[in-house]
Design a protein that fits this description.
The chain has about 625 residues and is mainly beta. The protein is about 5% helix and about 30% strand. It contains four helices and 31 strands. A hairpin with a 5-residue loop joins β30 and β31. The longest helix has 13 residues. The chain is extended, with a radius of gyration of 39 Å. This is Minor tail protein.
Length: about 625
Amino acid sequence: MIELSFTKLWSDRTSPIAIRFIDSPPFTGITIRFDEPWVARMSPISLRFGDTPVEPPTPVDNTFGIECGFIWIPPLEPQAELIITESSTDFENQTSNDWGSLFNDGVLVTSAWQSFDSHGVTAAMGWFIKDEIRTDISFNWTTPKDYISVTKITWLTPDEHQQTQTLNWLAVESEGLNLSVNWWDGYQHQTALLLQYHGDVRGSECAVKWGVPAARWICSSKYRPPKSPITIRFSEPFSANTSPITIRFTASPEVCKWYPGGGLLNPFPDLPDLDFNIPIEPQLRRYYLMQPTITCVRVSDNVPIVISNINIGRSRGQWASTVSVDFSSRIDATRAENQLLKIGINGYEFYAYIEQLSCSKVFGNETHSGSGRSRCAELAAPYMMPKSYTNATSLSFAGLLNNILQNTGWSVDLNGIVDFVVPAGAFSVGNKSPIEQVQEAVAQLGCMLLCDDENQALTVVPRWPTSPWMMAGAAPDITVHDAVITRYSESKEIGTECNVVWLRGEQQGISAKVKRAGSAGDIATDDISAQLIVDNQAARTAGTNALADTGNKLNITMSLPIMADLPPLTPGMLIGVREGVDVYKGTCDSVSISASISNTGDIDIEQSITLVRHVAKG
């Protein structure tokens, strides 16, 4: 079956080809020859082969082309016959082509009419295929009689192609005709023609498909959403009793997915979840060759700022890094005042505002320095004025934080925290900047903020991304060894190791008890009262971080270089320290990065970190 689908109305265009009829014999029909390559124009007619229409329509892919040749029936010349019977001898055949050039002298057309019973029209066309070729053919006839149309199509891949069409008219009975035409409006436009073959039986015809899979839609009712809308939480041990909750599952609606085809591999394979948390560990070498670099430019216009010393510090309790800079001259200090600076240290970039300048003078020497904060200071005074906030509607915790940062250009996400619902009016804060409001909200859950200054994004993570009692089986974010540790010191802090904490909300909160699994739950830490203790998940997050703060701690301070396989560390990272074959782990509490340039041009860069390691009693 051949289906002709129309996607838009045909517009009559002026053709550059004029047809001339030769009266003198021999009568060879009409021959059209082209002496110039065919240019790619859009055709209003699309040919599709198949038994049923494609729902939804198959998109046209212009990225590559597939050239195929089809041969059927023993003769060498492929042929498709359409028999439409009628008895009229008066007919009209019109051809309108969508070309806009002038008259072509290289076109020769001949026509001959042999008899009333059979009339032949032969057209030979040659063109040059470019990116996209479409052939526009429009047949219009005004008599209500039936016709026979024999269409022969031949296409190959060489430079010259030919299409021959022959129309024969017979007066036989029509064996079948199914014509459905929709146009002008509607989502689908198609014409269905039933082809009947007239003549002797010459053999069986088979349709065989081969090659790469065709593009299609795959629909199934066995759809599995990526995340279930049902969350089941267990607050007490299981007991063999009748459950008051009945879970009923309904059939999933049919979901369709587009399969682009074009290959033998499934473009949507079912892949297992892979753990890509591979710790970074610098290579163990006898010596390290480094070429330290320090750069500083003003972000607004890329004006270089010459600095001689810089220090960047950040801890888990801070929402912004503190920055102090020594400038080489008064001009550089003036250029950097209240401007966003991009500072490069060994290829790693940091953003900061220099908000306060200072000057020191001694005999024969004058120094200019400045202090400021990282880029997230844009969310604090004086860049943002203090204001009050109350969630007027019920929001998720992530939605509440994004609502606070609305129209600031910054976004916030949760990482390692299960979201929960905050009832309307449960959280209220007054006369604080947006970043201070966000900091107060996350602090009530025992969490902290990480700032991506380049992308203007905040991330909320627990103060203890890995609980101290679970560090033995966790993979560290980075592992260091004594070959890269230039200085090391430690001090022990004695504390009571608690295993239970009581929490309660305020106006619309809940009361909860969070106990360390496997413990007796008999040593309680200080109670927690906060506005956002409104859900069991909020209480679990805040209680876990409160219990992680208790117990004996070993505070470790070490100095490390900054190089390609040892990037600047971030507070909250799980750091592994290798001692021989053993690795102990601790949470990064603070990071201080310093870089300086001496009078002789020597550059010294290092980072000092503080780890908090949980140690057992004894």
